[in-house]
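User: Let's play a game. I give you a shape written as tokens, and you guess the letters that built it. Ready? Here's round one.
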């Protein structure tokens, strides 16, 4: 339903309807002008040729410094989605299936299905105010054919994170079964609380990150993978056989983004923390059960109605676009709301959503 809602929004807008788009996981902030200027300068200076399939050395070196690894452990990819896909494909080249915690980003199931693999889904437990790992469910779902776990923390759609103690216990548990973790950390730089990368807890992992969310560089399609040298080289070969390389001028823009990282992160985190507070307060005061966002720009309230029908009717009747929870692994009594509109619009739209929900149910 995520993609159906997206297409319906485009159709309604083409017909002249004004839609409040809280369905898309895309920041509305502009790319920092220094990043744009750097990219334009790179194009004008002729940086439009082939580069290494692994990525420019100077960019990989800067990323490696962030993570405390060698540049040979870094591969630049056309967005983190491709980084996830390539990592999973490389790690499963000798066979095996995949496990994921739900709710989860629907692209994961598309990737795994495209590879002809089985996706074992383990639901997180929802207390009414938090999401937690259930190690009993995890143990029951494990089988010897599972070779890889996709871990998305901070999570899309919940905007919550697995706590350090749980994460440590999880890595120790997975190590016993020789399961490798592919960690999607696209939202980690938008964390409102202190957070650790999975790399700090286990070496049996591949970390995938993005320039899209923090730097608003969604359309430029650039991300990266941090992995051991063998896996990194295999992903680079996969790049070479498919997309060849990332355009040099985009990599130059990414390099400039890293220089501005602290400044941009401070600005973006402040903005989205405020929006998360607005959304959380409005929804909880209206009686919704919801976990307080800890990162990123989503909130995932429980609605106690069919979320597919509710989301479609809300769009048609009120011009407010959200995503039904069924898109994220079968959570049909939840909706995902993207906090990517300005504070005033967010407040007004959520109050309208609450009023509509009261009538709808």
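Assistant: Ready! My guess for every position:
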């Amino acid at each position: 339903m995520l993609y159906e809602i997206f297409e319906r929004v485009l159709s309604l807008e083409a017909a002249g309807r004004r839609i409040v788009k809280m369905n898309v996981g895309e920041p509305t902030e502009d790319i920092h002008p220094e990043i744009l200027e750097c990219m334009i300068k790179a194009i004008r200076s002729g940086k439009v040729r082939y580069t290494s399939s692994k990525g420019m050395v100077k960019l990989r070196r800067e990323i490696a410094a962030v993570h405390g690894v060698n540049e040979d452990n870094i591969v630049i990819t056309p967005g983190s989605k491709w980084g996830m896909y390539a990592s999973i494909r490389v790690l499963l080249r000798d066979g095996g299936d995949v496990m994921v915690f739900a709710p989860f980003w629907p692209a994961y199931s598309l990737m795994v299905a495209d590879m002809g693999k089985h996706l074992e889904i383990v639901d997180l437990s929802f207390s009414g105010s938090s999401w937690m790992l259930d190690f009993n469910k995890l143990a029951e779902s494990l089988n010897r054919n599972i070779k890889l776990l996709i871990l998305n923390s901070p999570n899309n759609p919940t905007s919550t994170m697995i706590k350090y103690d749980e994460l440590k216990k999880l890595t120790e548990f997975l190590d016993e079964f020789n399961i490798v973790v592919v960690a999607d950390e696209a939202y980690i730089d938008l964390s409102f609380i202190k957070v650790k990368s999975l790399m700090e807890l286990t070496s049996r992992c591949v970390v995938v990150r993005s320039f899209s969310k923090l730097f608003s560089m969604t359309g430029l399609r650039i991300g990266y993978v941090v992995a051991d040298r063998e896996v990194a080289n295999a992903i680079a070969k996969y790049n070479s056989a498919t997309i060849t390389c990332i355009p040099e001028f985009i990599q130059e823009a990414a390099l400039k983004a890293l220089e501005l990282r602290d400044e941009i992160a401070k600005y973006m985190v402040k903005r989205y923390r405020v929006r998360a507070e607005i959304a959380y307060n409005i929804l909880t005061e209206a009686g919704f059960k919801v976990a307080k966002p800890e990162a990123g720009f989503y909130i995932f309230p429980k609605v106690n109605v069919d979320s597919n029908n509710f989301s479609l009717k809300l769009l048609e009747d009120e011009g407010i676009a959200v995503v039904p929870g069924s898109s994220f692994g079968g959570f049909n009594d939840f909706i995902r709301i993207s906090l990517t509109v300005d504070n005033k619009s967010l407040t007004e739209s959520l109050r309208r959503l609450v009023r509509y929900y009261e009538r709808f149910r």
